[in-house]
Design brief:
Layout: H1 5-11, H2 17-27, H3 34-40, H4 46-57, H5 72-75, H6 80-86, E1 89-94, E2 97-102, H7 108-118, E3 121-126, H8 129-139, E4 151-155, H9 159-171, E5 175-179, H10 182-192, E6 196-200, H11 208-216, E7 226-230, H12 235-243, E8 248-251, H13 256-274
């Protein structure tokens, strides 16, 4: 049976059971990785975590991935979406062996998938999420200039709905970027670092709840507030949304005035928080 990261760290004497229990309580409902929570608690640093886990698994580690160069044929072996969602990065291909930087030694499914896809034997190498994300942004994602105006990201697979929201917000002076599903929305969030995100609850590839979990697991997007679009305007849905970390929710059918008022309310809350 696979050991979980927390149990592994306890066995290694890096943290205590009490610390693990506290970390697991803080992790609930946040969508953050346990390692991220432990770092936030000041228990371990990212490098310490990688070193400790690597020692337990007898794995190699790698640092400063983005400072090296990689041929395009190597980058093509790992799909951009997978590199972004799973935080994996191809390091080297030689003699049928593909070295891949990973953050989670328990994610054997991703390694097995890449092994079958490429026909290579995958060799996992541990790295911090920050190191891998820096490489993913540099080699897979295109950088963009920061907008002077407030930027809002709208993520919805329905083009008519997204257009209604975009037009309403642009009339109010906001800049708007639109993504067609959760995976594209995650890329755009990392690209643009919007002030606010509005996303649908039901989307292909990654729904709204999986989307916010991915945002919260990424250091670049962890603090971006998100409003959920939902056709289920019930107390249960509201509770689920707020518990999952959404700032607010907007019931469908979408009405421009309602969208604008909720966005203005969100902006007011953000200003209050920053004071």
């Amino acid at each position: 049976m696979k050991k979980q990261l927390g149990d592994l760290l306890v066995e290694a004497g890096i943290i205590t059971n009490t610390t693990l229990e506290r970390a697991l309580q803080r992790q609930k409902g946040t969508g953050k990785r346990l390692g991220t929570v432990l770092e936030e608690m000041g228990v371990v640093t990212g490098d310490e975590l990688v070193t400790a886990v690597a020692a337990q698994f007898a794995m190699k580690t790698v640092k400063n991935i983005a400072s090296f160069s990689y041929p395009q044929e190597l980058l093509d072996l790992v799909p951009e979406d997978m590199a972004l969602q799973k935080l994996v990065f191809p390091l080297k291909l030689k003699d049928g062996m593909l070295a891949i930087a990973i953050t989670d030694p328990f994610d054997t499914d991703t390694l097995e998938y890449l092994g079958k896809k490429t026909g290579c034997k995958t060799i996992p190498v541990l790295a911090t999420p920050e190191d891998i994300m820096a490489a993913v942004k540099k080699f897979y994602l295109k950088g963009v200039e920061k907008s002077e105006r407030t930027l809002i990201l709208v993520v919805d697979d329905s083009k008519p709905v997204a257009t209604i929201i975009q037009v309403a917000l642009e009339k109010e002076g906001y800049d708007v970027v639109v993504g067609s599903d959760g995976v594209e929305g995650l890329k755009l969030a990392i690209h643009h670092k919007p002030t606010l995100i509005i996303c649908d609850s039901v989307m292909p590839r990654m729904d709204g709840f999986a989307f916010i979990r991915s945002l919260r697991a990424n250091a670049d997007t962890v603090d971006i507030p998100v409003i959920l679009l939902t056709s289920k305007a019930s107390p249960e849905e509201e509770h689920a949304a707020l518990k999952s970390g959404f700032l607010d929710f907007i019931a469908k059918p979408v009405m421009p005035m309602r969208v604008v008022s909720r966005v203005e309310r969100a902006m007011h809350l953000l200003k209050q928080i920053k004071k």
